Amino acid sequence: MSEYMLYSKSSEYAIQAMVYLAEVKSKKPVLTKNIAKEYNIPYQFLAKIVQTLVKHRLVKATRGRTGGINLYQDASKIYLSQIVDAIDGPPPIKEAKNINSALNTAIESVDIMLNQGVAKAMDFLNQSNS
Questions:
Q1: Which domain holds residue 109?
Q2: Are residues 42 and 80 both part of a single domain?
Q3: pTM, 2 dp
Q4: 124 and 82 together in one domain
Q5: Residue 69 is inside which H or E element, if any?
Q6: Does residue 98 surpass a pLDDT of 80?
């Protein structure tokens, strides 16, 4: 497995938009088309990404003539993983295979112990009846 994390194009664009908003630090809402133009991102594509960021409360949108978008909270409280998870969904659980393996081992161990216990009980009962 690679040491480097690869992001989807959507996540890349979302990260660029969030960085733009963090750097601009404007109290007035920023137009999505300005971000699209700055990073050469197709506007409609970025607009859909922004909708997702709004839904995940990473960005707040203001409607109207003076509308646009701003960060939902201070940039220092937003993590890269939040942006990527919002756009691409959370990563698959890598430990699932390890958990299943551990559970199977535990079940086998319990099964062996039960079988040994039953065998000892049978031996004891056979000796008692003799």
A1: 92-130
A2: yes
A3: 0.67
A4: no
A5: strand 68-71
A6: no
Predicted pLDDT of residue 32: 93
- Structural domain contains residue 33: yes
Confirm whether 13 is domain-assigned. yes
Model confidence at 10: pLDDT above 80: yes
Q: Which amino acid is at 78?
A: I
- Domain co-membership, 38 together with 73: yes
Q: How far apart are CA 128 and CA 95, in angstroms?
A: 49
Rg of the Cα atoms in the chain: 28
Residues 68 and 105 in one domain: no
CA geometry: angle at 62 spanning 29 and 21, to 5°?
35
Let me know whether 36 and 66 are in one domain. yes
User: Which CATH number is 59's domain given?
Assistant: 1.10.10.10
Scan for tokens 């699932």, then name that residue: 96
Kindly give, in sequence order, each residue whose CB lies less than 8 Å from that of residue 46, ignoring residues fewer than 6 positions away. Answer: 13, 17, 32, 35, 36
For residue 61, the cross-strand partners are 69
pLDDT category, 91, cuts 50, 70, 90? confident
For residues 60 and 104, the answer to whether their CB atoms sit within 8 Å is no
Closest CA to 51 of 41, 64, 61: 61
